Amino acid sequence: MQQRFSIASLAPSGFAVDEVEVVADIVRVRLRPRRLSAVCPDCWHKSRRIQSQYMRRPSDLPLSGRRVELTIVARRFWCDAVLCGRRIFCEQFDKDVLARYGRRTQRLETIVHHLGLALGGRPASAFAHRLMMPVSNDTLLRVVRRRTVDQHGDLNVIGIDDFAFRRGQTYGTIVCDLEQRRPVTLLPDRALDTSRSWLAKHQSISIVARDRGGGYGEAIAKALPDAEQRGGSGKLDGSLSGFSA
Question: Taking the model in full, what pTM does it have?
């Protein structure tokens, strides 16, 4: 038996659909929060008293070959707690749906993150445009960096090497957790001081794999004098190939 398409299925969890408009290759969906109250971020007091409204316009997953733009009617509330220093606050949504200041829903952000991991900067950007999810190569790398920093506690065995933001012009540094086989962070350049500063903040590291270049070796020796260095040739077990922009 055929099931009819439900407009409500366009809305992320916690939202209701007020209006859907199709303009050329863009689907605009107007949403409103289902809940009637919000929680003050300072005192955790619930409030139902609305002070004003404003619009948030994040992007969402494409629909039938069209880009989807959400218009969310977000609200500002009065905080009525007597001892709270905050009088007005903006409602925040579930971080698994839409992060604070987020310009993409989390379900779209997850796709962008995986594209960045799989294809890197420029190839992933071109592929995302064809999928009607336009995003720049710099944004892809920022999403990868933001979602991989400090997610799994202390580091023990890492690999460090340089990679190209723009081949032949701009280079950065990538650090990988070799036990978890995942990227940890992307540093904005390959300067000795930048690497040394980051390494000095992670004293739990005991083994560092690097290439035979002298720059990273000097940074490791100064920041982690007790760490064992293991040299090699080429990239880190293929881990860096997806990050060339």
Answer: 0.58
